[in-house]
Specification:
13 helices, 2 domains, about 10% strand, binds heme C, alpha+beta, Cytochrome Bc1 Complex, Chain D, domain 2, five-stranded antiparallel sheet, about 35% helix, about 325 residues, 5 strands
Length: about 325
């Protein structure tokens, strides 16, 4: 009797269908995350000590980089300049999941940059976009090789977007990890209890190809997976990161003013001592208004962090 039960349970264990996370079909969120983050696997040679180098850039195009024709609505493109490693599912397109792989290969033409071609492709640089089509009656998002399909080169694409429409999302996600934001914030709303305050929980397929995932530790602050849907203001984010007490009087969040670096947007040295002295007067009621938060320089760490935060929709 006991032997039979044991035998049966062993048979069930051995023959139970295995669960393979990589076979989850990629959602559009997964494609956006992966193409904007790039080859994002934590500590590795391509990204020494989380400095956020060798990363793709996300751009919003209102004109075609090749023909100059207006694009309405604007198109989001993911620019891999020469030397930037290809993201995981370009290396392993099979992991995109049923349908998304087929469409990315046939309509999206990613074959020439994926699989064993990925290192040659990263040496010359590639631009990606995301397309939508039907597969077996189901609407799926897939990856398009815009360099092949539309003749967009990384250089021309960055020039067409300009700095104003370029987002450092990949570097910003690295900042989330490097600055330890995950100590207080999660990127994982939970079923029902968080539904109204923080938005819907993610789908399994949203994580396809993401490594590392950044769920966060236990939660001491709001979940920020959808933060840009409730607050998309760059100005609010600047004030809140420079000193959270400017917008939330009793905030326990640390200030991240050091992510501005030494110089502001105009190349002038930021006088942090003066700023803090004036802020103290404001906090003590000796000034009506707090001092103004400096505009950040285009290559500052805070720019990347805010670009990433505002991509969390
Ligand atoms: C010590 C805990 C703590 C740390 C560390 C922390 N935060 Fe916060 N954060 C909070 C709290 C608490 C709030 C709620 C508003 C407030 O009090 O400022 C908040 C609010 C926010 C918001 C607005 C959330 C909303 O719902 O509107 C964003 C965005 C944010 N933090 C991003 C970050 C990022 C990015 C980092 C890392 C650079 C970070 N935080 C580090 C505690 C923290």
């Amino acid at each position: 009797m006991v032997g039979g039960a044991l035998g049966l349970s062993m048979i069930i264990t051995m023959f139970m269908p295995s669960f393979d996370l990589r076979s989850a079909v990629s959602t559009r969120v997964a494609l956006e995350k992966q193409l904007s983050a790039g080859y994002d696997v934590g500590f590795m040679y391509a990204d020494p000590l989380l400095l956020g180098v060798n990363r793709p850039l996300t751009v919003i195009l209102d004109k075609d980089p090749k023909t100059g024709a207006p694009l309405d609505p604007p198109v989001t493109a993911y620019v891999y300049q020469p030397g930037v490693p290809m993201p995981p599912n370009i290396r392993h397109p099979h992991d995109l999941g049923k349908g998304v792989e087929d469409l990315s290969m046939s309509k999206g033409q990613i074959g020439s940059v994926s699989g064993s071609n990925h290192s040659a492709a990263s040496a010359r640089g590639v631009v990606f976009t995301i397309g939508v089509d039907e597969f077996n009656g189901e609407e799926l998002s897939y990856i398009e090789n815009a360099s092949e399909l539309r003749g967009w080169t990384p250089e021309a694409t960055l020039a067409a977007a300009g700095d104003k429409n370029t987002r450092y999302i990949s570097k910003g996600k690295t900042e989330f990890v490097a600055q330890g934001c995950w100590w207080c914030h999660t990127l994982l709303p939970e079923q029902t209890q968080d539904w109204q305050a923080f938005g819907a929980p993610p789908y399994l397929g949203d994580f396809n190809g993401e490594s590392p995932t950044a769920f966060g530790s236990d939660r001491k602050a709001p979940d920020i997976l959808h933060v840009a849907s409730r607050n998309g203001s760059r100005e609010w984010m600047m004030m809140h990161f420079f000193n959270p007490r400017l917008v939330q009087v009793n905030s326990i969040m640390p200030r991240y003013d050091y992510l501005w670096g030494d110089k502001d947007a105009n190349g002038n040295t930021i006088d942090f001592d003066k700023w803090r002295a004036e802020y103290r007067e404001y906090a003590e009621g000796k000034r009506t208004y707090p001092p103004e938060v400096p505009d950040y320089a285009p290559n500052s760490e805070i720019r990347a962090l805010i670009d990433w935060v505002l991509s969390l929709k």
